[in-house]
Amino acid sequence: MVKLENYSGLTKKQEDLLKKHYCYGSFALLNINLSQSDFVFHTRAAAKHPNTLVPILASSWLQMRNNSLSLKSKLRTDGLTHFIFEMSPKSIIENTKLKAEWKVSQVKGVQNAEPSATLEYSHPSAKAKLTFVENPLQLKGNLTIGKPQYGVGLDGKFDLTSQKLSGYNFALWFFRKHSKVVLKHVGTNADELALGNVELSYYQKLSPLAHFGSKVTTKLAGGETSIEFGGDYKYDENTLLKGKLNTDGKLGLAMSRQLNKAMTFTVGSEIDTKEVAANRFHDYKLGFRLDFYHQ
Predict the structure, then answer these.
(1) What's the rounded Cα separation, in Å, for the pair 67 and 65?
(2) Residue 235 contacts by C-beta under 8 Å, 6 or more apart in sequence?
(3) Is residue 2 part of a domain?
(4) Does the N terminus or the C terminus of the chain have fewer Cβ atoms within 10 A?
């Protein structure tokens, strides 16, 4: 049975369909995942494309967990440190989760700490999340109300220093059998209340082997509209094929192949179809990804 989703998960299927496996953001990417019932270890290293600020970026995170507690720590070679502590006090308050985060990043040698505390509540007909952030001093919250088949969602951000709303988003969604439509307003002006962008996302399960997704974004201020659509097809038991196209003429292609139970190889590319039409072929991207799993 389909369950009610939180605000950030309303368009997850569409976003995964149009983003996941397209690994051309890096030339080469290596992922190693070790998982047991009480811990998860993940490490990755990415060789970026030439002329990038960080040519090689690596990170590792370790998560220790049990039925009600979870502690996760992450380190990255660009100076990012991230700790997350989660607790689900089922014996005290049902359907709630408490989360404390501490994130430290470095920009030009200057450390910036971002501590935060979050309270989440889940109910069959409502999901809510409230976060207090210290740097900058903000209060973030989102709420979804309805049924799995339809409902509304609100997402906002309040600046405690200036005492004004700095983020404002709204969503409507409709789900029927194997299709889902999500209509969102995404605020783009943090200084004052104003119309931002309207996003219309669509997801369709065409068959057990194929899926289709699209996203239409309209900037209400200027009237500009962009469209992106794509899909995937499970060619055989171990091979997944994906493709997408947007209104800028960028064509993305990806193939993911499970070599064995512990290893998956993915190749992704992006081509500018406008250059191909003009008999030029300079602006293209290519990336490779190798995933190792052990449970």
Answers:
(1) 7
(2) 241
(3) no
(4) N
Number of domains composing the chain: 1
CA distances from 64 to 49, 118, 151, 262 (A): 34, 19, 35, 22
Q: How far apart are CA 271 and CA 250, in angstroms?
A: 6
Distances (CA, A) of 234 to 23, 90, 143, 261, 267: 18, 40, 35, 17, 15
| Pairing mode of beta strands 210-219, 126-133 | unpaired
Instruction: Give ∠ CA 180-218-138 in degrees, rounded to 5.
Output: 85
- CATH code of the domain in which 249 resides: 2.40.160.10
Torsion of CA 65, 8, 180, 229, to 10 degrees: -110
Distance CA 187, CA 182 (A): 16
pLDDT digits (tens, 9 = 90+) for 36-85: 889 999 999 999 877 666 788 899 999 998 888 999 999 999 889 999 99
pLDDT value at residue 37:
85
In a domain, 259, yes or no: yes
Domain with 132, as residue range(s), is 7-70+123-294
pLDDT tops 60 at residue 154: yes
pLDDT digits (tens, 9 = 90+) for 91-117: 667 889 999 999 998 877 778 889 999
Q: What is the pTM of this model?
A: 0.85
170 and 197 Cβ atoms separated by less than 8 Å: no
How many CB atoms sit inside 10 A of residue 196's CB? 19
Specify if 227 maps to a domain: yes
Q: Looking at the domain assignment, is residue 229 inside a domain? A: yes
